[in-house]
Amino acid sequence: MASSRALVIFILLLPLFEVQATTILHFKSFSPFSTVLETLQNQLGYSFKNIGFLRRAMTHASFSEENNKAFSILGANLIQTSVSFRSLSKDIDVSSKYLNHQLSQISNVESSCAVDGMRLALHKVVRVSPKTNSSVPSVVCSAFRAIFGAIAIDDGKSDAAGDIFCAVHRGGELGNVLPL
Ligand SMILES: *[C@@H]1O[C@H](CO)[C@@H](O)[C@H](O)[C@H]1NC(C)=O
Prior knowledge:
By secondary structure, the protein is an all-alpha fold. About 70% of the residues lie in helices and about 0% in strands.
């Protein structure tokens, strides 16, 4: 008697378990884009508290209204600040001419920014409209810069963004190829 009542309760509850099981499965099945964002975080050595910021950084203006344009401006400024800060910390007598030269090198789209971005394979990550070539330097570069804007916003301060930029950029100078 008791066991048959238990069976009835079990059968009545069965649909609930099924709903739960499919919900769990749904959350576990990552889309290719979120898998790629995971890999990118590993390459950067930074784990986002809000993955939405990295998602936005990897979204070109041609793809949606919510895009990386403003993050990219912040990122470019953080890169310049970080390079100036490091340069002066290393040599308090650094000439303004040398510092300006360093800044113009680091800000170059083709020779610096896009090279660093391609090494991170951002052309394979960034979301663009079907008509847009994701490998052109301006697209790769805006995505690359936007990463550092996104990190600063996620972290609530700019220190980590500057450190991670230097690590990524130096990796390229040393000829270290980052794993895909
Ligand atoms: C996309 O841009 C890259 C870099 O400028 C270029 O090498 C490539 O040929 C372009 N691809 C297409 C399909 O236009």
